[in-house]
Amino acid sequence: MLYLHPTLRNADLTLGHDELLRPSLLGPARLGDLADRFAAAGWWRPLVRHDPAERWYTRMLRSDGVEVWLLGWSPGQAVPAHDHGGAAGAFTVVDGELVEETLNPSGSISTLRAGSRTWFGPDQVHGVGN
User: Is 130 helix (H, G, I), strand (E, B) or coil?
Assistant: First the structure.
């Protein structure tokens, strides 16, 4: 099953159908590449919202193996520590910056500025905020 947000119906995703449907083909590097390609495409910009009351998001793509979300964060917004239910993922920061706190033995905190990307493994627990 493949869901595409209406704005994606005519977009060139430059991603093979097998990759979208079989997550085993998408390791950390390919997940990061996918996030970067979506970020660079720019067609999503008219959809972005920055709501001062809450973080904004919309699903752009969903298959049996991949989900792509577009998120808008206003200053001061954050999500507390959470996992992703055994899924791996990646994200690219397009504008502004996010702070990611990884709950691991070292308790690392990373500041991700526009143009940077990161990925998380299936066992990672993290909190993210603007």
Answer: coil
What does the block give as tokens for 36?
Answer: 């970067």
For residue 6, give both structure tokens: 């209406």
How far apart are alpha carbons 89 and 82 in whole angstroms?
Answer: 13
> Dihedral angle at the C-alpha atoms of 31, 32, 35, 39, nearest 10 degrees?
-160
Residues 83, 125 contacting (CB under 8 angstroms): yes
Q: What is the pLDDT of residue 124?
A: 87
pTM beyond 0.90: the answer is: no
CA angle (91, 35, 112) in 5-degree steps: 35
Q: What average pLDDT values come out for the chain (130 residues) when binned by 10 residues?
A: 76 58 67 85 88 91 80 92 87 92 81 90 89
68 contacts: CB under 8 Å, gap ≥ 6: 34, 35, 38, 59, 60, 61, 62
